[in-house]
Structure formats: structure tokens, C-alpha cells
Amino acid sequence: MSMSKASLPAFEIGLNALSCVLDKAEAYAAGKKIDPSVLLNFRLFPDMFALTRQVQIAADQAKNGSARLAGVEPPRFEDTETTLDQVKARLAKTVAFLKTLDPSKIDASADREITFPLGPTNKGHMKGDDYLNHFVLPNFYFHLTAAYAILRHCGVDIGKRDFMGAIPIKMT
Amino acid sequence: MSMSKASLPAFEIGLNALSCVLDKAEAYAAGKKIDPSVLLNFRLFPDMFALTRQVQIAADQAKNGSARLAGVEPPRFEDTETTLDQVKARLAKTVAFLKTLDPSKIDASADREITFPLGPTNKGHMKGDDYLNHFVLPNFYFHLTAAYAILRHCGVDIGKRDFMGAIPIKMT
Fold first, then answer.
1. Which of A29, A164, B59, B111 has its CA 20 to 30 A from that of B29?
2. Which residue of chain B is at minimal alpha-carbon distance from A123?
3. Interface test with chain A among B134, B135, B170, by most A beta carbons within 10 Å
4. Subunit contact B122:A171, Cβ cutoff 8 A
5. Is the CB of B133 less than 8 angstroms away from the CB of A10?
6. pLDDT tens for residues A21-30?
7. Would you call B159 helix, strand, or coil by DSSP?
8. Contact flag B149-A152 (C-beta cutoff 8 Å)
């Protein structure tokens, strides 16, 4: 077990799974003659984030969390996506960024204090392993699941396997 | 970083947070004169699980995942809850069980093959660290978030901090 194994592959599998879920959303919208932007702007309650924002935040948790653990300043990706293709490109760009990080730097971060922005003015401080286990991973899966739940609520035919993605499992 | 730190405290914090979220659901139901069983039976789509089942599965992912990593046969908790108090008791019973597990046994499980039931007839096989990172944690947070999203969709006044729970963070 290592910090890098508990982070990078989980993020990559989750973001790629979300991209496939968005493909199913696209096919569903086409079949029902729904403008895809209706799905992208859908939310489960008026003061919750819409689908596009849920995807952006899931991707940013992976990008920012991994970068901070690797001791790298996370690049800023602008939140300008308005189409499914753009949202999927955001996911692909995030996965590509994750591949640039040095796993050994992340492995050495368990005991280092990580400082990160919390809202517009505050900062959070956590030990590296706590930051991964109790902040980045819960937040990442929260927004990944929220995106999935919005599409499920809209009737897109997706199931748990679509959410889990290409995990290293052998079935008998 | 260790297998036990990546599992036990995350499950305990998450399950306790969910119990507090259910307290807010109870207060909301009382204030709106809604029968709490309406919330417990609410679902985001007809073929998705209702709230009670989401909570049961989140708890079982924590119980079964941790037990298998510790090399212990997981106890079976019957799915008989019909009230908010009973559902919260299920969470408390699960947290109490987690405390009986030996963290050093879980720490030694990263390279062991874990075999677990997948549906009624199949079995899954994964290396211990893969099982935690790519099966138990995603499933746990998926059902935790699904429970939260159902209540959020029903209008319960909860936010991200309620979902995250009592995490070890210092704010400045």
C-alpha cells in the first residue's frame, strides 16, 4: 500500500468511468431528442451544483489533490465547458495531467503537512495521508457519484459497473 | 500510509457523519410533518435503491470490506430496519464492529488475494490493496453519497460538511 497507489489509479479509473457514463448520457439524449445541455444543467435540488460543475469539481479534486501531494503547484483549468465533448475533454486533460506526476513524490507525502484553499479566504491544513483519506478521496467520490446520480435520476441507463469502471478484478 | 489508516478511520468518520445527516432528516420530517418512512423509502429513480437500502449497503461495505482485509469472516447483519432509529442503530453497530478488528491484520493484507461474493453466484478476486482502493472505498462512498443525495433532493438542509463529518483538519 502506498500513497500513490491509493490516489493516482483510483482517480484515473474513476474519471475514465465518468467519461464513459457521459457517452451513455449523450446517446440517451440523442435517442430522446433531448438537448444535451439540459442534462449538463440538471441538478437534484435548486441549490446543488448542476452536472457540469459536479464533473469539474470531481476532476479538480483529482488534479489538485494529487498535485499537492506530489509537491507541485496544481495548474488551473478554467471552468468554461458548455458541451458534453468539452466536459469529456476536461476529464481527459485531467487524466493526462495525473500521468505527469511522480508517484515517488506522492509516496513521500504521508507525513508532510498539506495546505490548501478552503473557499475564497480560508486555508485547510492536514497531514498528507489524512488529506488523501479524509478530504480528497471523499470529495472526489462525492462529486463523481453526484454526477452519476443526476444522470440516473434523468433516466440514463447506467448501473454500478459504469460507475466503478475498469477496476482490476477477476470474476469466477 | 497503511491499509488500516486508509480504511477504518474513513469508514468510522463516514458512518458517523451519515448518522448525523439522518438526525437532520428526522428533524426535517418532524418540522414538515412528513412520516420519516417516506424519506426512508424515497429513491431517485424507480430502479434505484431507496434510502434505507443505501445506508445498509454503505454500512455493509465498511463491515465486509474491513473484515475480509483483516482475515475475519464478516458477521451478517439482517436488513430489517424500518425506522430512522433502527437505521442509525445499524450504523452504530457497524462502527462498533469496526473497532473489534485488528489494524495490524489489515495492514498485512495489501498483497493477499481477497475473495468476495459478487451477486448471488459469482465471486470476485482482487489483491488486498486493489480491493480497498478500487472496490470497497468507491462502493462505500457511492452509497454514502446516494443516501445524502436522496435527502438533499427531498429538501433536507444538509451541506458538504455534513457529508464529510469530523475529519482531522485545521482551518486558518
1. B59
2. B172
3. B134
4. yes
5. yes
6. 999 999 999 9
7. coil
8. no
Helix axes B137-153, A137-153, angle to 10 degrees: 60
The shortest C-alpha distance from A82 to chain B (Å) reads 24
Location of C-alpha cell 495521508: A129
Interface test with A, best of B47, B136, B169 (most A CBs within 10 A): B169
- Per-residue pLDDT tens digits for A41-72: 999 999 999 999 999 999 999 999 999 999 99
For the purposes of burial, counting CB atoms within 10 Å of the CB of B84, is it exposed (0-12), middle (13-18) or buried (19 or more)? buried
Sign of the alpha-carbon torsion through A142, A146, A147, A148: positive
How far is the C-alpha of B171 from the C-alpha of A66, rounded, in Å? 20
pLDDT confidence of A119, banded at 50, 70, 90? confident
Chain B, nearest residue to A155 by Cα: B45
Return the beta strands (E) in chain B as ranges.
Answer: 113-118, 122-127, 170-171
Could you tell me if the ipTM is greater than 0.90? yes
- Classify burial at B24, counting beta carbons within 10 Å of its beta carbon; exposed 0-12, middle 13-18, buried 19 or more: middle
Nearest Cα to Cα of residue B146 among B134, B129, B163: B163
**Disruptive mutation site among A53, A126, A169 for chain B (greatest number of B CBs within 10 Å):** A169
Does residue B119 register a pLDDT over 90? no
Contacts of B160 in chain A (CB under 8 A): 139, 142
| C-alpha span between B146 and B108 (Å, rounded) | 31
